[in-house]
Design goal:
The structure holds three protein chains of three kinds. Helices cover 81% and strands 0% of the residues of chain A. Chain A contains ten helices and no strands. Chain A is globular. Chain B has eight helices and seven strands; from the N terminus they run ββαβββββααααααα. The chains are: A mainly alpha, B alpha+beta, C alpha+beta. The interface between B and C is large, with 82 and 84 residues.
């Protein structure tokens, strides 16, 4: 096993498997968040958030998700560092645009941006909901269901630049995913000439959906508040 | 055509290299790129200067020896070819052309534009073969191989070992090279008995020799003169993962 | 010295098995006491080194390229022959043997050729076992195509990259032995001389092309698998580095050189584009399966096409001259290479050529109409692509232009049935020897011969020699004066070259030589031309030794010095080639003497006087080479005039 994890493919296996796990998580996350769009009273979203906060299965998955995140970051970092050492002298002139997509070459930068966003995002919501609590969460909460809706929408309505940060975060995520989706399967060996096209298409669809969805929420909330 | 050439010159492995600028005149657009360099070298020798050393041999795109990074691309600005098949009609009169050697930890520069690709031999020596002694085989038609499998094996086997995949990959990864051999032999029944050992040994050797890992950018596939598909890298990944599942 | 080919007695079909069951062998424990040097890593060299390594011998293998995989066998496109008769079209070992002898215009040795045909089938088996992805049909069985000079489909192929795939198979076997420690590989290393001690080959002197270091290597036997000498013509389908130096050094150390005049001119190459042309690219002979060769029937049409006023696609069929189909109805476009080449030259010389005037058309129009573009693409896609990259014309739409070019050397070091040269302990295999193709080689037979020699012949015959060497211990080259002398001689030769410091580049002199060779010793040869050619070759040689310029030093990598070493030998070999062509007063195979032709322009062989192998012996600097004759006795087949008309 240690041999496996020391190999280049083994490390990438971890990046890929954790990444695919995160891809599943993102979809669930988006479904929950989209409740904000569908019910302007906030009840639907609050129920969903409450479910996610209290359901034992989700509770169990949460630390797994955290480990997934850490593994993904850690091994992506190691792989990137090692890969950089593989070319000690750089080219004077390199036309990479001809042969590969920008996102695929800049996954580490995109990932780092997403990480920065994540810190902001967690401190905005998750941290407050789970650990510190917040006065907005208490307003109008019934039967122990906190008013997460109010916390989220107030932030998006009150701070326009937060909206921009969230849109940019979503865009970075979208680019990251546009490469990650197929690449995750490829690294696991789950691709061939036929499936590559299908997975590429699915990946594009998925990244547009996820990035678009996450970007839409703050924008929607802001615009709705101004109408 | 009149051209300006910016060429990497380096006396030997240890020397510090630099770019030199040369101008060259009256090149026929029907000449190949290497014939253009021949003309430059003739000119240099006449001026009593050392000619530019570059690897080349068959000059018909199959031996895999030629290996130039031209204007930022492995094998230059054309698809599905090696440097020796690149023709000057792909450039314009007055162009400046930057010519560099392959750059990778696994491919140290020997002189000027020549690099040492011995690492590729070593990777194949680690297991890129079927262990069969001369004369210990059965009749050729005793092994039936479905045409699709055999064709796909041939797609992979078309690798010429030029190293363009490594040269173009931002990680200097040799995955496409390794994949072409692992995939070819994994597709054939003859290659099955050693599949586990082969995948493990070749990947270990590739890592040991300083090549980076694959991040699926797909650049190798685009610059590969023989159009070897990333699907073979998927198969290598599969073979390697399965090999590690077996005791 | 009388040449002894050591052909085993007995019926033709039993000679090889008789030999094998009666030859001396080396026992397994003793095998590791023997060092064998193999120079070259093409099909013959790699397969021999690998097979000898498997047997347990200690092998040192040398190549000038950066990897054994790059040897020029890799460029062979079309295929490899074998008498499998998988197609049930009446093939047999005898038929392959017969076709090869006939294709070689009755100038090869019966016993060798029969053995070649006999082992051909095992080659296919061996390669399949190694994972060579030969083309297969939908049932999963091996597929075949047809080639020139045969009435059966016996050519196995891997797309248009058969040579590559076979070489990679042998290279895989070689890699396995390198990993096992049985073969030590020396890349970027050129053989500079052979060390002969008491008349027996005992090693070589090599030069490391990266560092310039000269080294001496001992071997109980030395095997040359160094390919042919086509580059004496400068422009050829050979690789840029392909050279004759190893064979030439062997010649100067006492190995006879046989039939140097027999070089093959391949009919389907891409025509020359200009003065900076460095090599010629072959378009596989397999194209002649589906392509039809023609020139315009009328001279005016040819002139219009050359002037760009008429497109070939606009010329209707009745105004085209499908000259091969016209002259050779039975074989049509699939006549042997020498015949097809000469016919093209004849049409072009008569003023019917297209392009620059030195080209004919190879047209796929009819096949595309009959089979569809997709089938043609599947069969020849990579060749069509290659053509388009070079010529910038789409061969699916407009016919290809082709012209003959130097391709293969049938001549080479004289070897006996055991593939041993006239120097004991020195063997030559593959294209480097003269053995199996007579005056003309059939398509898809070079790969067959290279692998036959390396896998199935030499590993046996060399033991018959080594068994007698058991009492010869490994030598330390540093302790032997002969090695030191050879090293010194090589060093002083290099110094001599470096010190000329003249004005001419090596390439320019090589081009001069090439032009003389092509004009005087090319497709059509005559006495006057050959004599003039010899004179001119000597002049270029003199210029070379007075005026060549090699910048830099001999220490470290020096690409001009590498070329100069090779060209120096070509300049001597070229003369021997012309001399051999001059002495052979007949036309046969690739050797066409204009004085000796039939009324219809076909070759006129002279069996009475020239049914022999002409083996030349080097007598020393400035002395005339001596000709030895190995008479060819055809016991088992009837010698006939080649006829591809009916």
């Amino acid at each position: 096993m240690s041999n496996f994890l020391n190999s280049s493919i083994g490390k990438k296996f971890l990046v890929s498997i954790s990444g695919l796990f995160l891809i599943t998580f993102l979809l669930v996350h988006l479904v929950v968040n989209s409740m904000i769009l569908f019910d302007s009273t906030g009840v639907l979203f609050n129920q969903a958030a409450h479910f996610m906060g209290t359901n034992p299965i989700i509770k169990f998955v949460e630390p797994v998700l955290a480990i997934g995140f850490i593994l993904h970051l850690l091994y992506a970092g190691i792989v990137t560092l090692q890969n950089q050492q593989a070319r000690p002298v750089d080219y004077k002139k390199q036309h990479s645009g001809n042969s590969s997509k920008w996102a695929s070459r800049n996954m580490f930068i995109l990932g780092s941006l997403i990480l920065i966003f994540l810190v902001i995002h967690i401190s905005n919501f998750f941290w407050k909901m789970r650990f510190t609590g917040h006065e907005l969460l208490e307003q109008g909460s019934t039967d122990g269901v906190e008013n997460a809706y109010l916390l989220v929408t107030s932030l998006f309505i009150d701070w326009w630049w937060i909206d921009i940060v969230y849109v940019l975060g979503a865009v970075a995520l979208g680019f990251h995913l546009s490469h990650a989706f197929w690449a995750g399967f490829q690294t696991l060996g789950l691709s061939n000439i036929k499936w590559r096209k299908r997975l590429d298409f699915l990946g594009l669809l998925y990244s547009i959906l996820v990035a678009g969805g996450f970007a839409l929420i703050p924008v929607w909330v802001k615009i709705a508040s101004m109408l | 055509m009149d051209l300006t050439l910016k060429i990497w010159r380096q006396a030997d492995r240890k020397a510090k290299g630099r770019f030199e600028i040369y101008s060259i005149k009256n090149i026929s657009p029907d000449s190949s790129f290497l014939e253009m360099l021949d003309v430059l070298n003739e000119q240099l020798v006449r001026d009593n200067a050392e000619p530019v050393a570059f690897d080349h041999d068959c000059r018909e795109g199959i031996c895999g020896m030629c290996s130039l990074f031209i204007n930022g691309r492995a094998h230059g600005p054309d698809e599905s070819i090696t440097t020796c098949q690149l023709h000057m009609r792909k450039f314009r009169d007055g162009d400046t052309i930057v010519i560099e050697p392959w750059r990778a930890c696994g491919f140290p520069v020997i002189k000027d534009l020549i690099v040492d690709r011995n690492a590729f031999d070593k990777i194949l020596q680690a297991g890129g073969f079927i262990s069969v002694n001369t004369n210990s085989v059965q009749d050729g038609n005793a092994i039936i191989i479905p045409k699709e499998k055999s064709d796909e094996a041939m797609d992979a086997a078309a690798c010429i070992g030029c190293g363009a995949c490594v040269a173009t990959c931002k990680n200097s990864s040799a995955m496409l090279f390794v994949a072409s051999k692992v995939s070819q032999l994994a597709l054939l029944p003859q290659g099955k008995p050693e599949a586990v050992r082969r995948a493990k040994a070749m990947v270990a050797k590739m890592d040991e020799l300083g090549f980076g890992g694959c991040t699926n950018t797909g650049a190798c596939e685009v610059e590969c003169p023989k159009n070897i598909s990333l699907a073979h890298i998927a198969r290598l990944n599969r073979e390697f993962l399965l090999a590690n599942l077996k005791p | 010295m009388k040449l002894n080919a050591k052909i085993p007695s007995g019926p033709l079909a039993e000679k090889w098995s008789t030999y094998k069951s009666t030859q001396h062998l080396v026992n397994p424990a003793n095998k590791r006491k023997f060092d064998i040097i193999v120079v070259g890593t093409g099909l013959a060299g790699a397969s021999a080194a690998a097979s000898l390594g498997e047997l347990g011998f200690k092998v040192k293998n040398f190549c000038y390229q950066d990897s054994p995989r790059r040897a020029h066998s890799i460029a062979a496109q079309g295929g490899i022959n074998a008498a499998k008769n998988y197609q049930n079209d009446g093939d047999s070992v005898y038929r392959l043997f017969y076709d090869t002898i006939k294709g070689g215009d009755y100038r090869s040795r019966e016993a060798n050729v029969y053995r070649l045909a006999e082992v051909s089938n095992r080659i296919i088996d061996q390669c399949v076992g190694q994972g060579v992805p030969f083309a297969r049909d939908y049932g999963g069985y091996l597929d075949n195509r047809s080639f020139g000079g045969a009435l059966v489909s016996r050519t196995f192929y891997a797309r248009g990259q058969t040579g590559q795939q076979l070489l990679l198979g042998a290279y895989g076997a070689l890699n396995r032995q390198i990993a096992a420690g049985n073969v030590k590989m020396y890349t970027r290393t050129e053989m500079m001389d052979i060390v002969v001690i008491d008349g027996v080959a005992r090693g070589i002197i090599s030069r490391n092309l990266e560092t310039g270091a000269l080294e001496a290597h001992f071997g109980h036997a030395v095997v040359l698998a160094t390919g042919g000498y086509g580059n004496v013509y400068f422009l050829s389908t050979n690789a840029m580095g392909s050279n004759a130096s190893a064979a030439w050094k062997a010649y100067k150390r006492g190995a006879f050189f046989a039939n140097p005049a027999f070089v093959q001119i391949h009919p389907t190459c891409i025509p020359v584009h200009g003065a900076s042309q460095s090599k010629l690219t072959l378009m596989s002979e397999s194209l002649r399966n589906d392509g039809r060769i023609w020139v315009p029937k009328e001279k005016e049409d040819a002139e219009k096409i050359r002037a760009g006023k008429l497109k070939p696609t606009d010329l209707p069929d009745e105004k085209r001259d499908y000259y091969l189909e016209r002259r050779y109805p039975a074989f049509g476009n699939l006549v042997p290479r020498d015949v097809a080449s000469r016919a093209a030259k004849e049409r072009c010389d008569a003023g019917f050529g297209v392009g620059s005037g030195q080209a004919v058309y190879l047209d796929f129009k009819d096949s595309i109409n009959r089979l569809g573009q997709k089938v043609i693409e599947e069969r020849y896609g990579n060749l069509f692509q290659m053509y388009e990259k070079i010529v910038d014309e789409n061969p699916y739409k407009t016919p290809m232009m082709i012209y003959p070019a130097i391709h293969y050397a049938m001549g080479g070091l004289w070897v006996d049935y055991e593939l041993q040269t006239t120097v004991p302990g020195l063997f030559a295999i593959g294209e480097a020897n003269f053995s199996d193709h007579g005056a003309n080689r059939l398509g898809a037979s070079a790969l067959m011969q290279g692998l036959a020699d390396g896998y199935f012949v030499l590993p046996y015959t060399i033991q018959n020699y080594l068994a007698g060497q058991l009492n010869v211990p490994r030598m330390d080259p540093a302790a032997k004066p002969e090695f030191k002398n050879a090293l010194d001689a090589v060093r002083s030769d290099i110094d001599k070259l470096m010190n000329i410091k003249g004005k001419r580049t090596v390439d320019s002199l090589h081009k001069d030589l090439g032009l003389i060779m092509w004009d005087h010793v090319g497709m059509g040869r005559n006495k006057v031309g050959l004599e003039a050619g010899i004179k001119k070759i000597r002049e270029v040689r003199e210029t070379f030794w007075q005026d060549v310029r090699i910048p830099g030093t001999a220490a470290g990598m020096n690409i001009e010095l590498e070329k100069a070493n090779r060209v120096a030998d070509f300049l001597e070999l070229g003369e021997l080639l012309a001399q051999d062509a001059l002495h052979r007063e007949e036309s046969c195979g690739g050797h066409f003497r204009e004085e000796h032709q039939m009324d219809d322009g076909e070759a006129r062989r002279n069996d009475e006087k020239f049914k022999y192998v002409g083996a030349w012996e080097y007598k020393g600097p400035g002395k005339a080479d001596e000709l030895h004759k190995e008479h060819l006795d055809y016991e088992f087949i009837e010698v006939k005039t080649r006829n591809y008309k009916e």
